[in-house]
Amino acid sequence: MAATLKDLPGTGSFARGIHPEDRKIFAADAAIEVAPTPRDVIVPLHQHTGAPCEVVVKNRQSVSMGEVLGEAEAFVSAPVHTPIAGKVARTGVVTLPNGRHVAAVPVRSDGDQLEGQDLFEDMFGGDWPVTDLDGHSADQIVDAVRRAGIVGMGGAAFPTHVKLTPNKDKPIDVLLINGSECEPYLTADYRLMMEAPAPIITGALLAARAIGAERIVIAIEDNKPRAIGAMEQAVAGTGVEIAGVTTRYPMGGERQLIPAVLDREVPTGGLPLDVGVVVLNVGTCAAVARAVLRGKALTHRIVTVSGSGIEYPKNLLAPIGISYQELIDHCGGLRSSAARVLSGGPMMGFSLGELDAPVTKGTSGITVLTQDDLIDQEETPCVRCGRCVDVCPLNLVPTKIALAARHRDWDLARQYHITACMECGCCAYACPAQIPLVQLVRMGKALLPRP
Amino acid sequence: MAEDTPREAEAQASPEAHINVAPSPHLASTSGACTTRWMMLDVLIALVPLIVAALVVFRLYAVKQLAICVVTCVVAEALFTRWRGRHANLNDLSAVVTGVILALSLPWSAPWYVGLIAGTVAIGLGKIVFGGLGQNLFNPAMVGRAFVLVCFPVALGATAYQSDTSALDAVTAATPLTRAVQDGESASLWSLFLGNVNGSLGETSALACLAGGIFLCLRRTASWEIAAGTILSTAVVALIAQLLGDGVLSMLHHILAGALLFGAFFIATDPVSSPLTPTGKWIFGVGIGLFVMLMRLFSGYPEGVMFAVLLMNATTPLINRWTIPRPVGGPAPVQV
Q: Is the CB of B18 inside 8 Å of chain A's CB atoms?
């Protein structure tokens, strides 16, 4: 399928990038399954970009599903809620897959739980209106989203109410809904678009009301024709547009998707709102609809458990705070060939050493790779072939930046725009010398002295 | 099994014991020339038509020259790397590529010690002194060739290509470019295209160069920008010279004769000594074409590809600095 954009200025693609095998076949046809209610969840107080939450419940307090466990005064933050009914235990510390140690509230299941198909119906079923949303003012929408603790569910976990808060200096004219899901293996957004398109569209309409966007575009990669079909059917008569974009990694990045669909370039160091755009993930939109219309907090999300190292790949509706181990066990466990367990997809995901980490709002999937999938070539010297330059979606010269970082030559690294890198990993993927280019750049960005 | 120690039994019971961690990305490209060794193999495959053409025209002379150069380069690489106290990695095939390109750039008549010295200098002075693979400033094969050209001007000069004693038709005549300079004769374009003319081993057949070169560009192992830049700028200057009535060679003669196509596709495109960015590659290629024509039209040498490549190699770091691309979204704002 080719890119299909009607009346949109973009070409449906961006320059450079890579074409990894999508490997979505593992879980693409597995319908969303509700994970069984765990005995314990551990809800991290800092799952998002911004200020961490403070605990607002007491030890041994009984909580019902959706009750607030922690919140923060700061504007850029998002409260966390319990996904199950139960008893709160003493706050501890957990290590998230990204390496961050954060405080977390354990909750032990107690009493009646909303589970199985009832939970699925509660989250995505029922009626999702697409008209007569005028009753919800912008302030009400933003407030409901903030109280529900909604953050970007594509992975970055930036608090959504911050994006939706109107800014007088920077008017927004387009709300772009990101359904591209460009990471190999992941199918969570794909399944959601197929099985529950209605809440996505209602959420998009509500979000557009909040920011005053005239136009709503849902962008989906053209390797998901069935999702495009399902969404096209669902948007009929709502004015929401569907853009089929080229399948190319990293299409899901804002700096690629916005030029591909709208032909606008987000300035380096700036945000999509600098060019009049807000980008929301499809899962985030569904959460917005649920928060605004039903007053429900973000307590569950869809997690793809996939890869050749997992027995039965699935797409699970999982409570936030459930451990990776439990989801893996529910999918038949690891195969003996499993070599690496990732939070997220293989291009930007974090590898786990311990499987007891909790699922967070930004966990889009668990990918289990085998030794055959992994890179086992030795690093050889750079022959300056320029492959990394040919694939860098931001038009950088990765080899120069990486080697400057390796030698701590910060002036050279800055001359080659090290801070513009978004760490998508195309360079390391393409490098014939197996140089860990993006890893070196990442390290360089962390060590870069502040001017 | 009964003999299993508890630890082994545990490892078998829990696959977690085998999981490892590493930073992303966790996948690497497996298509095309996805390792350095594959890139070098690509070059060797692309050189096959040139080697065949050389064998057809020069028979055993070509075999001798290829054998001497390849063996010398590989041995030199192994020896010099060991002397540096490093592990010699001959598996990457880069020394073989240097050897083949060097042999193809020498005249058939060059005595055995020319290949030996050129190969040693190419690897030693051209590559290892800079730090080995990936570190050299100049194309190693051209460093070796330049060295022997200066040392043995007679064995490598224009007269080296002619031999009255040879049994082969093509090699009793002067090279097409020499004939043009000395006698004002131009060879037929058809024989230049097929390669039934005198010259260095690899440069005679334009057809073979095009076939191998286009393969390399399609595999993206060679940069098409460099080859295109070189050929286009040569063509433009040659066309102007032809229109001004200077010399006896037409534009097509300049492109098909001599080492131009061989140089454009196989020598200039050496990634190590050429620029990184597409803009830089165009500048580099155009520069080579201009220097080639400058030397062909105004110097005593009938040919100029080798010097043109070496001169532009020297400007590569500068070109890289000039052509730092603008990132998508513009440069990062200066933090205050």
A: yes
Contact B134 A383 (CB under 8 A): yes
| Alpha carbons A336 and A341: distance in angstroms, whole number | 12
Q: What CATH code is assigned to A5-30+117-294?
A: 3.40.50.11540
B89 contacts A355? CB cut-off 8 A? no
Q: If you measure CA to CA, which chain B residue comes closest to A430?
A: B29
**What tokens were used for B336?**
């205050």
Question: A54 near A70, Cβ under 8 Å?
Answer: yes
Question: What string of pLDDT tens digits covers the 336 residues of chain B?
Answer: 444 444 444 444 555 667 888 888 999 888 777 888 999 999 999 999 999 988 888 888 889 999 999 999 999 999 999 998 888 788 889 999 999 999 999 988 888 999 999 999 999 999 999 988 989 999 999 999 999 988 988 777 766 666 555 545 555 566 777 666 666 666 677 777 777 677 788 888 888 999 999 999 999 899 999 999 999 999 999 899 888 876 667 888 888 887 899 999 999 999 999 999 999 999 999 999 999 999 888 877 777 889 999 999 999 999 999 999 999 988 888 754
Distance CA A46, CA A103 (A): 7
**Contact residues for B5 (Cβ-Cβ < 8 A; gap 6+):** none
- The domains of chain B are located at 36-321
A305: three-class secondary structure by DSSP: strand
User: What CATH number is given for B36-321 in this structure?
Assistant: 1.10.3430
For residue B252, the distance in angstroms to the closest alpha carbon of chain A comes to: 30
Q: So where are chain A's domains?
A: 5-30+117-294, 387-447
